[in-house]
């Protein structure tokens, strides 16, 4: 006799009533075992009827099968029956209150119809209950109704209608709705695309505690700040030069040549064998704008003894001189992090952007860190020497041979 564990399958299978051949097959197999008196199979059949897996949702059938399993002292079935009975009482209470116009009960009723708590799953009735509550200005219901129209569950999908309800909830400070407004302004769904407005809503969502909006904030910020006119491909792809301009790596600089932006753009710069985030490298997307280079890094990860930090880097190179010198300013944007790092790892985390405390420890905060400055000079065709914040120097090396000037 098969003993497939239904609970494990429930964790990894999408709920689509009667639409999954795997669930339909499983239902048939379990039904045969249940009819032979297997109490665990009876419990599984009841659960499948309750949640609409492999068969259309049927609360009455679910209760009957739970009762059969409970009659054999199946503890899970006894517990489930008690829960169903309690949920029925809750549903009846919220239904009565909703009928009087109580907007919170109407919202709760919508959730119960959505999840099948105390009643059968009914997405149409859920949408109706949410709309009754939202029409009275209940922010949670306004957001939920926006989500329903956004995804088209129980109603015909409509991004414009979704925007209407998201906006109402967002204006009341509901962070989840603010996030969706940011998403809609960024994509142009249901509203005219506007990156600046998208960033405003994402920022409000983050300020309201919706931390998932941080990565979207960064993406939109980069789209706003990226130069409209570009003259070079991403740095990681721009590794080829005309043969006439290639100089052997061990050859000293010819001072009669003029240093230019292209000398940095054609190489993938590294430090201690790792790509650097503030010069063109394999982890950056760099663009030129007149006499400047702007770079935006991919996501980076820094692990210390007691923290993990995910961040991005934005840098600007300018003031190029014919002797091979130039300036770099960069800032790190912390996307998320575990909360604290101790003094033992302070030097590492301060590199990213952190705040010193009176006890000489460092607290990492999400958002932009302080600005760093580099005074750099190309000392060989494949080497750049930099002085950071006028305190310490280091050497950057390119695996790609480059020419000093044209």
What does this structure look like?
This protein is of the alpha+beta class and 406 residues long. It folds into three domains: 6-73, no CATH class; 137-225, Tetratricopeptide repeat domain (Serine Threonine Protein Phosphatase 5, Tetratricopeptide repeat); 243-397, no CATH class. Helix content is 42%, strand content 18%. The protein has helices at 6-12, 21-35, 39-51, 59-70, 75-99, 103-115, 123-134, 139-151, 159-171, 175-187, 195-207, 214-225, 262-265, 346-352; strands at 270-271, 274-275, 284-289, 292-297, 300-303, 308-318, 325-337, 340-341, 355-356, 362-363, 367-368, 372-380, 383-388, 392-397. The strands form three sheets. Strands 3, 4, 5, 6, 7, 11, 12, 13 and 14 form a nine-stranded antiparallel beta sheet that branches. A hairpin with a 4-residue loop joins strand 5 and strand 6. Helix 10 packs antiparallel against helix 11. The longest helix is centred in the N-terminal third of the chain and has 25 residues, at 75-99.
DSSP summary, beta strand count = 14
pLDDT below 50 for ≥5 consecutive residues: which ranges? 1-19, 229-257, 339-349, 354-361
Strand residue content: 15-25%
Mean pLDDT equals 78
Shape descriptor? elongated
How are helices and strands ordered from N to C? HHHHHHHHHHHHHEEEEEEEEHEEEEEE
Count up the domains: 3
Decide which structural class fits the backbone.
Answer: alpha+beta
Instruction: List the total number of helices.
Output: 14
Radius of gyration based on Cα positions: 30 Å
Largest sheet: 9 strands, antiparallel
